[in-house]
Design brief:
four-stranded antiparallel beta sheet; 3 helices; alpha+beta; globular; single chain
């Protein structure tokens, strides 16, 4: 990534758009490192690849999490509780045929970097997952 990108992104330079610079940096390097860290010890770093535009963090238990970009700038921080990460056993599971070939609906959606990226939370039977994706214009 360019040194200018990091300086302006980390400083919140008002003369540049962090979202635009992130897109430019991802295009130049073709990817950027994203880290999801939890207060109970979960920590994984993945590459957000511009080619497929997404990365998925799996095996998430209810906890407080922070989503960080290369260099340590926080993109999102908050609580992912059981209602977001774990399927409610009292609600019947959807059949695959009911999802129109797609994924189950996200339990939460958080815009990142002025809506240029988003973080989607998906519930699972024992653990949940988070998908970070670039929103292409």
């Amino acid at each position: 990534m360019s040194e200018h990108f990091f300086k302006s992104f980390m400083a919140g330079d008002s003369h540049s758009s962090p979202a635009r610079e992130m897109h430019e940096a991802i295009r130049a390097e073709n990817s950027v490192s994203i880290t999801l860290s939890g207060s109970l010890g979960y920590s994984r770093t993945l590459r957000l690849d511009f080619t497929n535009g997404r990365c998925v963090f799996t095996d998430l238990a209810p906890d407080s999490y922070s989503l960080l970009i290369e260099g340590g700038r926080c993109l999102w921080s908050g609580e992912l509780d059981a209602s977001l990460l774990l399927l409610d056993e009292s609600v019947p599971l959807q059949l695959a045929a009911d999802t129109d070939g797609g994924e189950f609906p996200a339990t939460a959606q958080y815009p990142l970097i002025k809506n240029e990226c988003e973080m989607l939370v998906y519930a699972g039977l024992e653990t949940g997952r988070v998908c970070v994706r670039v929103i292409t214009p």
